[in-house]
Amino acid sequence: MSEKITPKLITSEWFNTDSPLSIQALKGKVVVVHAFQMLCPGCVSHGIPQASVVNDAFSKDQVQVIGLHSVFEHHQVMTPDALRVFLHEYKVTFPVAVDQPSLDKVLPKTMDSWQLQGTPSLIVFDKFGQCRLKHFGRLSDLQVGTIVGKLAAEENNPVLADDTATTSIKSSHSTPNCNDDACSI
Amino acid sequence: MSEKITPKLITSEWFNTDSPLSIQALKGKVVVVHAFQMLCPGCVSHGIPQASVVNDAFSKDQVQVIGLHSVFEHHQVMTPDALRVFLHEYKVTFPVAVDQPSLDKVLPKTMDSWQLQGTPSLIVFDKFGQCRLKHFGRLSDLQVGTIVGKLAAEENNPVLADDTATTSIKSSHSTPNCNDDACSI
Amino acid sequence: MSEKITPKLITSEWFNTDSPLSIQALKGKVVVVHAFQMLCPGCVSHGIPQASVVNDAFSKDQVQVIGLHSVFEHHQVMTPDALRVFLHEYKVTFPVAVDQPSLDKVLPKTMDSWQLQGTPSLIVFDKFGQCRLKHFGRLSDLQVGTIVGKLAAEENNPVLADDTATTSIKSSHSTPNCNDDACSI
Amino acid sequence: MSEKITPKLITSEWFNTDSPLSIQALKGKVVVVHAFQMLCPGCVSHGIPQASVVNDAFSKDQVQVIGLHSVFEHHQVMTPDALRVFLHEYKVTFPVAVDQPSLDKVLPKTMDSWQLQGTPSLIVFDKFGQCRLKHFGRLSDLQVGTIVGKLAAEENNPVLADDTATTSIKSSHSTPNCNDDACSI
Prior knowledge:
4 copies of one chain form a homotetramer.
Chain A: E1 11-15, E2 30-36, H1 41-57, E3 63-69, H2 80-89, E4 96-99, H3 109-114, E5 118-119, E6 121-125, E7 131-136, H4 141-153, E8 165-168, E9 177-178, E10 183-184
Parallel strand pairs in A: 2-3, 3-4, 7-8
Antiparallel strand pairs in A: 1-4, 2-6, 5-10, 6-7, 9-10
């Protein structure tokens, strides 16, 4: 299934990096974006540790992991200041961006643009900046290893858009809701 | 080793209960107090789930579990409003008190009075309001079951004070510090 | 519910002990019998590690853990020789008895006498040799800690028989069958 | 590092398949061989479940998982009859071969030919029958996903032999020895 995601992060602040990162400028590397909220239980127990493992497992020349703090509920307590403490206490070392809040929408701008369904979401771009995976909910380490290993091994040509895999956990709630795995919009 | 802890909670707010609880008023029940901070990784991954399991395992006639939010660092982001969201998202259902902040000390009042070393700490009172366990750091479910099972089975007489067990993880840090297991003062 | 179990092990061989143990001779101690089969997945993943944790957690003056290899299926491959290798490879250090095979029944003699429903089963005797727990299937560490902590704290008088707790996983199979948790008769 | 492994299984018996498998005949598929012993704790707790997850995660058109029972110790109890029971109780569904015992050596023939260091070992062949990974000890699911995902995505040409990855846990024992992770020769 084709998935037209503009490989552009719209952010208001960055942690764990001297300067903002850009997916377009990272061409030549696989980019793994982990969208999360600091008070989303599934993000804390599963998504963040998995992103750290991916960050540790691959050479920085090959794979760039980016955290994206996409707050769509409880905005008043999941502030950048609270996020800074969270990243410190949980010893998150990869770059993390704050998804830019919208003036008129509940969803922050990157989340809205990418049409994410909730947190955690994993969005993977190939070396050519094409989105190859957009997944809401929990993926196993084997699944993440398989897609990243595949994309890291690709050498020559951009793949056709219809090679894109887009999978998701079905969300039956119309209001924000968290379970052990995920928080949905 | 004897441990003179006044069985008194000094609190500023309560969640998940219609009225404040008092250890003295709970005589006849074993009281298990889980002191935590919402951004302490060891509390979130181990302490809170364990307290929930204890809460589910015992009859409310026998054992009362109480959460105590004892913030000694990053006060500005671990506010009662943030705690309310945390308890909601993590589906914590047992009563939780906010340890009353001190006007002139970093440590909140109950934590200071009980001389806790950090979070998570588990403090267990017998049916007579005597402190029988004060532990900083991680305890296994088997250890918690053993002490609560023992105290829940006691029927008749207050034990002598020197039966009190006080154990702790050694803390070598003089400044606030968190590892996977705990945050120490 | 009352449970009349004769506190007698009928065995053919012992490992990890110089001489056979007897529940009657262990009066004054809580005796925790873990009945298992070496090719029962739930015993290997959960029961044996839990019995080892109980063995490590309590003083030998207070609690005696005993493994009981109660083979009721695949007798030809779960032999004492195979068990010896299993105990060595899995580094089991507490005493383990071979439940004595019957000449005319599928069930070994202790298992038959105690009317166990399968493996793993946990059978706990108090300091007076009374059976206080007979459980088929998985118990949490908190549950095991609670019962052992309670019995280890009992000092003076034998309890009445109707204090006995007998719990079990319902087994709907009439032929031997294993799932992740247990193998039933 | 180059690793010249003949892609040939020397076997005496097969389970879970109507006819013996051959790595050469599987050209076009990635072949994942999990070498194990049924009484090796690290194989049972980690290796076998991981092989099952790999077996479930990939299309049979792309990836073939094969278990290889390479007994190098306690031959008298880890017999094919015992293995049959083990595979049944642990619900292993992928094809499993018995590594052919040697008449004059402790090591079975495939293990000896491939110079494996112990169990569990993971040996991965690409679509052209070239060995691309030979690993003794535990690998994370992320690591296994990465190598299998990479090889499954390769389309056109055999890679050069020096692309082969060979990694191992260092073994300091000269006699057979098991720890939680592995049993070494």
